[in-house]
Every structure is written in structure tokens, then in C-alpha cells.
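This section describes the prediction task in plain terms. A model, or a person checking by hand, is given the sequence of a single protein chain and must write out its three-dimensional structure as a string of C-alpha cells. No templates, partner chains or ligands are provided. The sample shown here is typical of the held-out split.
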Amino acid sequence: MEYVSAASVPQPRAEAAAPSARGGGRRSLAAALLAGAVGAAVVLMASGQTWAHGQAAVGGGALPLKASGGDITGVPSALAIVGLAALVAVFAVRGPGRVVVSVLLTLSGAGAAVTAWLGVSDSAALDEKAAKASGDAAATITALTHTSWPYVAVAGGVLLLLAGLLALRFGTSWPAMGGRYERDGTPRPRKARTAPDPERPEELWKALDRGEDPTRES
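The expected answer:
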């Protein structure tokens, strides 16, 4: 009677699951890179645009004033830079360090979105400009209107937040930077040195420079 070992039974499901997991890791990696880079760029661009318009009463007339995102709050742009640095750092570390950097990326995106949203109705920057223009410390801005740029900055912050969430969820399967290591973290085998050709003097000199004995056979 012949017996079939359980170890010889093929496992098609397990073999099919590995390529699927690798494909999911590549897709999440590409999505995180795209979302993070675009999100940071959008926040930085939007922060430099005009967020609010208004008028200040000066000498019986109305002086038009405007405030950029940087005038209203510099927090979104600062967090966008932090988030962009964290996005790069995600691929430079492994293990617990990658989780910490992913959390930083997530918080940067959330903070950029929230602070940009708070700037939608802010008038403090224009009130300060109105006080300087009129010479009256109690002067405030009138006819206050806001542009759509704060909402654009909010969208950029949300993209950064999405990149952070993807890094938290799938980051453990992403590769890290480093030329001597494979994707599984094991060092790549080094190629064995070939013995120098005695008929080529330049190879003998190179071997002597490396501290090798060119007369010894390998």
C-alpha cells in the first residue's frame, strides 16, 4: 500500500495569495507616494494664494486689502513640509521606526487640513492690516470675503492624511532604501573576487593595492 505524505500536497491557494499580497503592496505604495507628494504640493501652493479680501476705512474712503494663506496661518505650509519629509523617511526606516514616521505623516496631514479649515473664516490678519492702514488700533476690516484657496489647502491636507493612513496600514510590506539589501531585508551575496591575470600587470598592481597576494591561488 502506498502512502502519500501530507507535505507533498500542493497548496495553490497559498501560492496564489503571495503574488496578490505583493501586488497590493505595490499599489498601496504608489498611491501613498502620489497622494503624499501631491497633497504637500497643493498645501504649499494654496498657502501662497489670496485667501481673503476686505476693506479698511481710511480718510473717509475704503482701502481694499487682501491676505494670503501665509498671512492668516503658516501652520498648513509648515505641516506640509513636515509631512513631505516624513513621506521620504518612511522608506528609510523599518520596523517600529516606520510606524512612528507613518503616524507623524498622518498627523501632519490631519493638522494641515484642520488649520486650513479654521482659516476659512479668519479675519485677524486683515483686521491687523486695517489697523495699520488706518492708524487706529481698534479698526477692523469690512466687506470681508474669502476665496476658495483655503478649501484647496484642506484638500491637500486630506491627501497627506490619506498617505499616512496607507503607510500605517500597508507600510510593513513596503521595501526600504538600501542597495545591499533585498526586499526581505537579507544582505545580498557579494560576488567572489577572481584571481588576477598574471599576464596583465595592471591587475597585479590593483591586487597589491588591495593588500592581496597575487601569487596565491584562490
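For orientation: Residues 14-18, 179-185 have pLDDT under 50 and may be disordered.
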